[in-house]
């Protein structure tokens, strides 16, 4: 019987192909309540933006029929191109992509809404080698989807009630906290602080008046047998 021995270089290529195929088939980032964003390699047709430059600057926006806004940005010709995909309201997340000048992907993932990287991101080098980075490592006890669920329960996210809700997010690694500022119709409304370890109580700030008092609204204990969110907030 003939035995075939693969050379290391060939073996490495096969492993990379299998890894890339796995990425394309199974990797995604989930956004509460029901959105999944595929995290896989792709290529940009850069010629579609050739005529959109104004001088050396590209800043072009178009809106798709489903309401998704696509913004393409570059700061000089023959440089990396950034793509910002913003789904129609009431979604608040942004799908961010950066491409090398030849159209190959450099990175792709989800921003919440523009400030914080969440979920899994794909990062690729100039030769096409890609890897997956999980930004939820260390902060997934009470993660970004739990924050979104809480905000929905508060009536400030995933709503089409005639008001325009805008959320600004941050995550502080040192203190293991999430922060969200909510604006209502262009005016500051509330701010929330969450413990990403799931141990401390939510702190709620009223920004609509002159008050800067933090109000505690309850612990994060989850009870899957009942309404977990209401149970968690003692409401």
Protein architecture, described:
It is a single chain. With 235 residues, the chain is mostly beta strands. The chain has three helices and 15 strands. The chain has an eight-stranded antiparallel β-sheet with strand order 3-4-5-6-7-8-9-10, with no helix packed on it. Strand 7 and strand 8 form a beta hairpin. It is globular, with a radius of gyration of 22 Å. The C terminus is likely disordered.
List keywords for this structure.
eight-stranded antiparallel beta sheet; mainly beta; five-stranded antiparallel beta sheet; 3 helices; 235 residues; signal; single chain; disordered C terminus
Give the N-terminus to C-terminus distance in angstroms. 71 Å
Spatial shape: globular
Task: Report Rg.
Answer: 22 Å
Beta percentage is 35-45%
- Order of strands across the widest beta sheet? 3-4-5-6-7-8-9-10
Structural class: mainly beta
Tell me the series of helices and strands, N- to C-terminal. Answer: HEEEEEEEEEEHEEEEEH
Helix content: 10-25%
Poorly predicted tracts of residues: 8-24, 221-228, 230-235
How many distinct helices? 3
């Amino acid at each position: 019987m003939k035995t075939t021995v693969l050379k290391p270089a060939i073996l490495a290529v096969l492993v990379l192909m299998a890894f890339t195929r796995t990425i394309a088939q199974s990797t995604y980032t989930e956004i509460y309540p029901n959105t999944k964003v595929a995290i896989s390699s792709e290529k940009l047709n850069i010629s579609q933006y050739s005529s959109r430059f104004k001088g050396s600057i590209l800043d072009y926006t178009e809106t798709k029929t489903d309401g998704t806004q696509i913004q393409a940005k570059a700061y000089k010709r023959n440089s990396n191109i950034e793509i910002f995909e913003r789904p129609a309201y009431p979604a608040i997340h942004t799908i961010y992509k950066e491409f090398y000048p030849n159209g190959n992907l450099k990175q792709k993932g989800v921003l919440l809404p523009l400030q914080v990287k969440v979920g899994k991101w794909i990062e690729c080098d100039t030769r096409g080698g890609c890897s997956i980075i999980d930004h939820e490592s260390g902060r997934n006890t009470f993660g970004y989807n739990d924050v979104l669920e809480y905000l929905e329960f508060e009536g400030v996210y995933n709503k089409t009630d005639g008001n325009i809700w805008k959320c600004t997010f941050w995550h502080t690694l040192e203190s293991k906290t999430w922060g969200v500022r909510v604006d209502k119709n262009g005016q500051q409304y509330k701010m929330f602080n969450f413990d990403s370890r799931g141990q401390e109580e939510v702190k709620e700030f009223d920004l609509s008046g002159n008050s800067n008092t933090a109000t505690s609204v309850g612990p994060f204990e989850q009870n899957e047998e009942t309404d977990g969110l209401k149970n968690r907030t003692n409401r």
